[in-house]
């Protein structure tokens, strides 16, 4: 028994002095110059872009402006004109390596979400929106029932009565989703960007559609972009009630509003 105890003590001492070590080395990070990437348009100046990572043993993460992809090869549609920067991050054994590729889009020759063109047109000039003086009784701004009405009908203001009656809103896709509010003489009042989410629809109590999506103006707002009952209440996110080639109707109600609560409405038309 004494011999066994001595042996166990010796083994314990050995283990304490010489711990087990995993000598497996962490892999290296591939230099950016060795990445084998192919990013190109399928047509000259077109907006359908192919992204290929041919680098062995390097995983992919593509940020292509409007979304991301983790595929080694992917084909995407970009809705913007001008130079677009696509960012690639490669996953190596030892970490990540990031680089960029640039494509120059001169024409939207592959169909993208229809709303891009409806808001901003398809050319470099973009699309200008003004108050819709052709609206019913010339009413372009005011209040009505949330989740119920589709135009102002309670508090009503005509196109000639709004403070910014001659101002304009320009949406364009030159390099990104740009938004510019301008006065009649062309001077810039506000600049920002825009984005939309057509999955954020709302229904009336009877299940009928009320809104078709949501528009957000980032860094600016629309003409008379405040709630009708409080000019200090600046609005940046709107329910889209109608969006066609020629007409744009927006609405807003405070968080927590229910059907028939007071909502503010805006009625615009294509210039």
Describe the structure in your own words.
The protein has 271 residues and is mostly beta strands. It is 8% helix and 44% strand. The strands form five sheets. Strands 8-11-12-13-16-19-20-21 form an eight-stranded antiparallel beta barrel. The chain has a four-stranded antiparallel beta sheet with strand order 4-3-6-7, with no helix packed on it. Mean pLDDT is 90; it is low at 1-24.
Comma- or semicolon-separated keywords:
single chain, 271 residues, mainly beta, 44% strand, disordered N terminus
Radius of gyration: 29 Å
Percentage of residues assigned to helices: under 10%
Widest β-sheet, arrangement of strands: 8-11-12-13-16-19-20-21
Helical segment count: 2
Mean pLDDT: 90
The count of strands amounts to 21
Question: What is the 3D form?
Answer: elongated
Poorly predicted runs are 1-24
Helix-strand sequence: HEEEEEEEHEEEEEEEEEEEEEE
Distance between the termini: 101 Å
Strand content: 35-45%
Structural class: mainly beta
The largest pleated sheet is described as: 8 strands, antiparallel, barrel
Secondary structure layout:
Elements: H1 2-17, E1 37-41, E2 48-53, E3 59-63, E4 68-69, E5 73-77, E6 82-92, E7 95-105, H2 114-120, E8 127-131, E9 139-145, E10 156-158, E11 168-172, E12 178-182, E13 188-197, E14 202-203, E15 209-211, E16 213-218, E17 226-227, E18 230-234, E19 237-243, E20 247-252, E21 262-270
Antiparallel strand pairs: 1-2, 2-5, 3-4, 3-6, 6-7, 8-11, 8-21, 9-10, 9-21, 11-12, 12-13, 13-16, 14-15, 16-19, 17-18, 19-20, 20-21
């Amino acid at each position: 028994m004494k011999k066994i105890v001595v042996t166990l003590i010796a083994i314990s001492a050995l283990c304490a002095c010489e711990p087990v070590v995993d000598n497996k080395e962490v892999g290296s990070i591939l230099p950016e110059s060795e990445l084998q990437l192919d990013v190109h348009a399928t047509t000259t100046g077109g907006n359908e872009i192919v992204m290929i990572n041919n680098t062995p043993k390097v995983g992919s993460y593509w940020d292509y402006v409007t979304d991301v992809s983790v595929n080694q090869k992917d084909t995407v549609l970009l809705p913007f004109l001008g130079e677009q920067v696509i960012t690639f991050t490669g996953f190596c054994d030892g970490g990540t390596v990031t680089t960029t590729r640039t494509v120059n889009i001169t024409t939207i020759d592959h169909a993208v979400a229809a709303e891009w063109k409806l808001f901003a047109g398809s050319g470099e000039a973009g699309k200008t929106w003004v108050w819709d003086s052709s609206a019913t009784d010339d009413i372009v701004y005011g209040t009505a029932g949330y989740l119920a009405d589709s135009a102002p009908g309670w508090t009503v203001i005509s196109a000639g009565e709004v403070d910014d009656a001659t101002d304009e809103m320009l949406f364009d896709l030159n390099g990104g989703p740009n938004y510019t509010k301008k006065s009649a003489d062309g001077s810039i009042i506000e600049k920002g960007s825009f984005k939309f989410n057509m999955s954020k629809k709302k229904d009336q109590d009877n299940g009928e559609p009320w809104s078709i999506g949501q528009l957000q103006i980032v860094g600016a707002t629309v003409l008379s972009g405040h709630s009708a009952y409080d000019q200090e209440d600046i609005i940046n996110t709107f329910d889209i009630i109608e969006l066609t080639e020629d007409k744009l109707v927006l609405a807003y109600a405070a968080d927590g509003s229910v059907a028939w609560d007071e909502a503010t409405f805006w009625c615009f038309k294509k210039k």
